[in-house]
Amino acid sequence: MKLNIALLAGDGIGPEVINEAVKVSDAIAKKFNHEITWTPALTGAAAIDAVGVPYPDETHEVCMKADAVLFGAIGHPKYDNDPSAPVRPEQGLLLMRKKLGLFANVRPTFTFPSLIDNSPLKRERIEGTDLVFLRELTGGIYFGEKGRRDGGETAFDNCVYTRAEVQRLAKKGFELAMTRSKKLCCVDKANVLETSRLWRETVQAMEKDYPEVTVSYEFVDAVAMRLVQWPNSYDVLITENLFGDILTDEASVISGSMGLMPSASVGEHTSLYEPIHGSYPQATGLNIANPLATILSAAMMFEDAFGLKDEAEAIRAVVNKSLEEGVVTEDLAVKGSKSYKTSEVGDWLVANL
């Protein structure tokens, strides 16, 4: 199979972890007789520095022509530390989601047997955890009208959702639940927010179309609490943009490291695959960043974008082997044991494929 993949390395450690994901992907392609064409493009702070905007038209064209997008991370201290910056890397990410129609972020959370004690939560709380968040990505407070008034003394951010936006996200949630344990949780704040009441009534109206799925409705604050108490009580969770942003980061630490969790953003056009971590500017160029989340994102890409399940399983298997044998970067290394450089982990994975 010929695979045409847009490569958006981004900022900070993005290029370093992307490089290892490319090495592993190329090894898989060779093993299974595929041909990958990688097309690099600028985004984030790197794009601002080069052309003045965080998501150039040229990058969008590359993404639209690709079969999938593999994405690193964006963000840079010179923008993070300047609240008045007129152009910011994160604006590029939001624009990319909007222009590509990436309305659903698919964020799995699971545990690795060899790392179960790395989690800040007790073993008995998290064993067996295997849940998936579907976060709405292109609506809500991040995309609503925002501004200042009263001479800058009052700020506002409007949260707006349409029924159609809720329906298309919920549909993916129901469909995913049907392939798993047929359990779906709608996360909202319907006791306070009108947008949440729209979410709840819309999902309730859809239940009849999926009679095999058991649906629960929980307030976001209750879910935040239960995620650290009984995470394995959840299977598929759907929620709006802001709630999903917060809850998925909370859930990510269950595994023991944000450097392990992959994600996908899907919707109307080309799907995008990325690690959940940020650009980690303090580690830029030090060859210490954990590449496994990006490599596991590539595994998601092989399976979901191309239907290549065996290839994805091969990547996951070799990643599990590396964890079991302690071939890990310093964030996962046991005290007193050797840690490996970012590139060394990638080289080991390739050799063991």
TrEMBL record:
Principal location class: cytoplasm
Site feature (Important for catalysis) residues: 142, 189
PROSITE patterns, alphabetized: IDH_IMDH
Pathway given in the UniProt record: Amino-acid biosynthesis; L-leucine biosynthesis; L-leucine from 3-methyl-2-oxobutanoate: step 3/4
Binding site for Mg(2+): 221, 245, 249
GO molecular function: 3-isopropylmalate dehydrogenase activity; magnesium ion binding; NAD binding
Cofactor note: Binds 1 Mg(2+) or Mn(2+) ion per subunit.
Pfam family, one: Iso_dh
Catalytic reaction list: (2R,3S)-3-isopropylmalate + NAD(+) = 4-methyl-2-oxopentanoate + CO2 + NADH
Entry-linked Gene3D superfamilies: Isopropylmalate Dehydrogenase
SMART domains in the record: Iso_dh
Residues where substrate binds: 97, 107, 135, 221
The Isopropylmalate dehydrogenase-like domain, residue ranges: 4-349
Keywords: Amino-acid biosynthesis, Branched-chain amino acid biosynthesis, Cytoplasm, Leucine biosynthesis, Magnesium, Manganese, Metal-binding, NAD, Oxidoreductase
Domain of life: Bacteria
GO cellular component, one term: cytosol
Biological process terms in GO annotation: L-leucine biosynthetic process
Subcellular location: Cytoplasm
EC class of the enzyme, as a word: oxidoreductase
EC number(s) on file: 1.1.1.85
Cofactor(s) this protein requires: Mg(2+); Mn(2+)
Subunit structure: Homodimer.
Role played: Catalyzes the oxidation of 3-carboxy-2-hydroxy-4-methylpentanoate (3-isopropylmalate) to 3-carboxy-4-methyl-2-oxopentanoate. The product decarboxylates to 4-methyl-2 oxopentanoate.
PANTHER family linked to this entry: 3-ISOPROPYLMALATE DEHYDROGENASE (PTHR42979:SF1)
UniProt similarity note: Belongs to the isocitrate and isopropylmalate dehydrogenases family. LeuB type 1 subfamily.
UniProt name for this protein: 3-isopropylmalate dehydrogenase
Organism: Flavobacterium reichenbachii
Lineage: Bacteria, Pseudomonadati, Bacteroidota, Flavobacteriia, Flavobacteriales
Gene from which the chain derives: leuB
